[in-house]
Amino acid sequence: MARSIQELERNHPCFGGCKFNAGRIHLPVSPGCNIACRFCDRSINDVEQRPGVTSKVISPDEANTFIGRALELVPSIKVAGIAGPGDTLATDYAFETFRKIGVEHPELLKCMSTNGLLLYERADELIEAGVDTLTVTVNAVDPQIEAQLNDFIIYHGKKIEGAEGAAILIENQLKGIKKVADAGVTIKINTVLVPGINDHHISEIARTVKEAGALIYNIIPLIPQHKLSDIPKPTCEQIEKAREEAEKYIKVFRHCAHCRADAVGVPGLSEYSQLVYQNRLNVKNTFSHG
Ligand code: CLF
Ligand code: SF4
């Protein structure tokens, strides 16, 4: 059943609940990724260059134990989120985890984030797993721009490079957003702001995702690394300008704490990841889908 906007505004730190110090636990159950963002150090997320192979994540069976530990430390946790460290739809672990959480902790909001490559074809499974809120990272709606941010996609076992891969990614993101939004899932869009590549494209992205059914929009400033390490990170003025552009079309979220895939606590206020996961994870500070 779809959660009301009022409930999200009270209880979800990334959909308005920051006023109420609502907390979240990220469960890093999703290894591996199926696209190649040029700003992402995939050595962390894709240890053997294929999905499902890494020991640096927790298993779906362990999720409820970690949630129990986290709730003892931070009773204000209202959201169980899965945001990586790879893509949540590239493997089945995120859905499996949400099903288990739904049984033991039905009171928690289930939040997921994805690059959206498989969103359209996995939309029914996502709805069935009871996901309440979804974040899709959309960095461009023009394949020529997306191709400057993403080298290739791995789609149904095939590597598709450049603008051809980018066009498939964008089409699946937008069709997927529409399908899950129509089913009552509340959607946030994250855009990594990359000066000189997509900073003049923000209003076009915001308009397009709003039309597809997204509710809220979040600008994530580039952390210059990997193949985009020589691009300067956006200035406060550039971030503010991008937000103003987006705000003409869609509600903008301004309290993002750029959380890691194993973050626990109230975003920006407290961090209990080490206590909860006890150094089980060795996830370097890198881009997170959030
Ligand atoms: Fe986590 Fe993301 Fe859900 Fe929030 S984070 S999966 S929507 S519960 Fe929030 Fe963190 Fe920013 Fe993300 S502050 S990085 S926007
Ligand atoms: Fe995959 Fe996310 Fe890294 Fe992009 S940023 S390559 S979607 S893990």
Describe the structure.
This protein is of the alpha/beta class. It is 32% helix and 18% strand. The radius of gyration is 17 Å and the shape is globular. The model is unreliable at 44-55 (pLDDT under 50). Iron/sulfur cluster is lined by residues 33, 35-37, 40, 42, 45, 84, 86-87, 115, 287, 289.
Instruction: Report the CATH superfamily.
Output: Aldolase class I
Q: Return the structural class.
A: alpha/beta
CATH topology: TIM Barrel
Overall spatial form: globular
The overall average pLDDT, rounded, is 89
Secondary structure tally: strands: 11
Radius of gyration: 17 Å
The kinds of small molecule bound in this structure are: FE(8)-S(7) cluster, iron/sulfur cluster
- Main-sheet strand order equals 10-9-8-5-4-3-1-11
Number of domains: 1
Q: What is the CATH class designation?
A: Alpha Beta
Helix content: 25-40%
Strand content: 15-25%
Straight-line distance between termini: 23 Å
